[in-house]
UniProtKB/TrEMBL annotation:
Its EC number is 3.2.1.23. It is an enzyme of class 3 (hydrolase). Keywords: Glycosidase, Hydrolase, Metal-binding, Zinc. Pfam families: Glyco_hydro_42 (PF02449), Glyco_hydro_42M (PF08532). This is Beta-galactosidase. One of its GO terms (cellular component) is beta-galactosidase complex. One of its GO terms (molecular function) is metal ion binding. CDD domains: A4_beta-galactosidase_middle_domain. It comes from Nonomuraea mesophila. The active site is at E151, E318. Belongs to the glycosyl hydrolase 42 family.
Amino acid sequence: MTPPPPTPSIRFGTAYYPEYQRSPDPERDLDLMAQAKIGLIRVGESVWSTWEPRDGEFDLDWLTPVLDAAHERGIGVLLGTPTYAVPPWLQRKHPELAVVRAGGARVPWGARQEADFTSPIFLRHAERVIRAVVGRHGGHPAVIGIQLDNEPGLHLIHNEPVFERFTAWLAERYGDVGRLNEEWGLAYWSHRLGDWAELWRPDGNTTPSYDLAWRRFQAELTTRFIAWQAELVRELVPADRALTTCLAYQRPALDDVRLSEHLTVTSGNAYYLAQDALIRDAEDRPAEPGWFAAGPDALFQAADRMYGSKQRRFWVTETNATSIAGSQLNLTPYDGQLRQAAWALVARGAEMISYWHWNTLHDGAETYWGGILGHAMTPGRIYDEIAALGAELDRAGDDLAGLTPDADVGFVCSPDSKWALAFQPPLTLDGRDPDRDSYERIVAAFYQGASDAGLQAGFVTPEQFGARRFPVVVAPALYCLSAATAGALTAYVRDGGHLVLTFRTGYADEEARARAEVAPGPLREVAGVRYLEYSTLPGPVPVHGLAEDDTRHSAHHWAHHWARHWADALEPEGAEVLARYDHHHFGRWPAVTEHRTGRGTVTYVGTLPGRTLAAALFRRIAARAAERTAEQATEQAAVDADQRPAVPLVGDGGQPQVTVRSAVNARGQRLWFVHNWSDREHAVTVSRPAVEITGRRRPLDPGPLRLAPFDVRVIT
């Protein structure tokens, strides 16, 4: 049998669904793809009712001509299992499969992911269709991998059998209800249990530890489901086929790191708002988490998060071709923005860029989620830009092989803390109602600050922390802090690291219980600071001290730097005060402190910093890190040109629209990705001879490197 097509350095693809088209013409579509250097299509994951139109009756041959035609053109195929979109006959035959929400309402059939995937009935039907589809097509020479389900973890499943399994899960972990009573503090409001049968349903739960356990359990169900599919599919396909799934990182029942342990490669969505939303400005407004990346730094953060799932390169199985939203939001990208976004993802470790989708659909819920071809099925501006990008990536292939993104600062993030702070959020956006996205908002604010300071980031969980070394580590709102993680962070500082702690870090233990000790609990000594009270900030409060000398970095020279939403009443215990609130009451307390201990340093930030305050903080940290690097380098006089301190680029100052990211390829060469996220020309200075690999490969002499509006240049 002919082997699968060779693996390119960067796979360039699109989701392709000829079964949705009015007049399918795969030969013509695949010819257009080949001309655009699109070398991969993603197929089959959404159409269970096409594969199995009636119970036990399969129609499997319709995909064969597509696979054959793809193989003839050297186009690889990612074949999906269709388990996330249940056919009508199954929901009619087994209405009990409908997911039950909190409160008892059933998810009505008519969208997708409506079924309780833990049910033995569902699993029996799912196994049958997987064996049929993958058994027939998984060995086809065009198929390079199998996508297992799609965007798993959409619902917290409250069906009665799931609750019964949850009770058994708790009994296995805690042993007896007496221990559970103590661990969860169930004396409160007369919640003490006398027997496991007395455990109340999660629908009306108000106990934080219960909610955290429920969320952990739900994420474990999702992981088990994907692991079950992986084990099943591995029996059916050759060993060289990759196993993956498309992750939507916002899903409530998802632990991406544990799930990714069962995958060959992590894949996910990288959607972003285009047009003016992708212009990188210098406005001091809060970072906005959400389904779409709002701005270049949020796009970088999404990519860094995907890399963190396995600490390896990842696939982007879905990203914008044109508009990705409902009919009311059609933000087709400006000229150059598709290219910018793709290179940004490659810079942070993407080894596949696949567009959603080949053609805009004429039917269904996603009629206005735009494809490479529009409703007219005719190539236009978007197709031409993607074809040019495909050719550019193809030409640069050897340079892009094996890229490992650089990271100056590591973010220690945990799903436990995210879930706990969704249940008891520290932030409010309107002054009263809880912001369930508090955790993501805190992470985004500190990530934005690091990015504004020119630092590159990586993500690790507490369990991954020891396996990847960073000069600077941020523990943003690491609320559920175990003794083991606290010990690892303390050892990191004692060994010479620079640790940034934020409000809410360490305030609770691994059961989401507030600690019965002076905050920040086990990190108090290493932080050199304590607090006994804290307050919500109803409005922004100006901060003075740390940031005032750094206004030269701002194009607008703001008069103030701001603290938002929160204030810990910090009392230094050896720490130096870096910044204070400019306020008649809160001014008695520091907003930011710094403590040198052992060989390292701890910066404590007791508020949610505004953008300029966060940037000033990270510029200070970066300067200290550079000093340490220089001290170490003096012991090695011959610092070679490939060391990252010898950056071949020097900005012209005050350019928030320009970002620089770097990565090292398989040959050990460092590549620099320079983006101009604006509608005006900008320039950087090349400080030493270099080579540009974007566009026409050419040498660069020292001097100005001009970037057109919405341009990106990659040099080595």
